[in-house]
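Interim report, section 4.2 (structural modelling).
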Amino acid sequence: MKTGGRADGRRGGEAERRRGGRAVGETTSPATRGKTTAALKRKSSSRNRSARPPVRPSALLSDLKQLYPDAKCALVYRNAFELLCATILSAQCTDARVNMVTPVLFARYPTPFELAQADPADVEEIIKSTGFFRNKTKSLLGMAQALVADYGGEVPRTMEELRKLPGVGRKTANVVLGNAFDLNEGVTVDTHVGRLSRLLGLSAEEDPVKVEQELMGLFPQEEWALLSHLLIFHGRQVCIARRPRCSDCVLSRVCPSSLV
Ligand code: SF4
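Predicted structure of the assembly:
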């Protein structure tokens, strides 16, 4: 999702300068720049951490809910099977791109029964633009065949059963359980959720499974699916990777990574 127009170039340079980097047009030697940037980042980071109170999960949720009252899954689907297909396709691909190919895929293969018998070459052609299309085709067909063979063509409702399906990991299972079935089994941790969790001081972990465990300990279970949507919305619209809009961010008062 793209955000509205603003002077990103100017602010990007300003933010970079605050972090100890350089604005466009400034020159330093790569060696000096690397050392200086790392040192100032550490300095800025420790100053901000000590000056700000820790992020309170309840206040964070409240702020983000107010900001994004319509936060929800960006994938377009009509049932659990379609969401499962769309989530498999979304690996290493934008939701917008997935939403472009799924109308054709779902029209051609509306249920697991049709998809289980699909010609792989046909599915590959339909989903090609989402990347990794050969592996994704194998996952889609394997998943559909397993649904037909083991679950009567229905999508199962437990983490354990979902994770046994080809191409389905914990993240995909969380998306399906939380959005198609309103079951908060875990927190979906994608790149936005992982990145924001670290920036906000909610987790220091890089491993999505460890980040998820920490988030599950901090937030009420009934909020887990929504929490993921809220962080993803914020990551797309304000806390943008490599150019966070801290001066426009409602969390800047409490965020330990704020540049303002
Ligand atoms: S203050 Fe900046 S780094 Fe922190 S969440 Fe907001 S945009 Fe991201």
